[in-house]
Write a structure and sequence with these properties.
By secondary structure, the protein is mostly beta strands. It has two helices and eight strands. It has a four-stranded mixed beta sheet, with no helix packed on it.
Length: 116
């Protein structure tokens, strides 16, 4: 997407989506990170999404190396644990207004530069 006005149109629920005839698909290896939505997260990167499994299926089909998965959330969306199925993809980082949770670290960080 290079031009927000020309390259995007409202899709389902009014969410802007790239127009296929104006935007070439990106290959997984060309993507620096993916911002993954969710309703609830745990400190180890477990997430509960919106119930359709779209991101789990999409990201599960990407070949290694896997693009880093990042979620932006409010601290109130962090719970001790969420149920995770074998087909679920954990995010690598959850960034809140006060901490950064890494799936690869046992304690959350309050230093925003620590996981960069």
């Amino acid at each position: 997407v290079r031009d927000l006005d020309a390259d995007l149109r409202a899709g389902t629920w009014g969410i802007p989506e790239p127009l296929a005839d104006r935007c070439l698909p990106a290959m997984p290896g060309e993507i620096d990170f993916a911002l993954v939505p969710g309703l609830v997260f745990d400190p180890r990167g477990g997430r509960i999404g919106y119930g359709a499994g779209y991101y789990d299926r999409l990201l599960g089909a990407w070949p290694p190396p896997v693009t880093p998965l990042v979620a932006a959330a409010f601290e109130l969306q962090i719970v001790p644990a969420v149920p995770v199925l074998a087909s679920d993809r954990r995010v690598d980082l959850v960034v809140t207004e006060s901490r950064t949770y890494s799936a690869h670290r046992s304690e959350p960080s309050t230093d925003p530069q620590e996981d960069l």
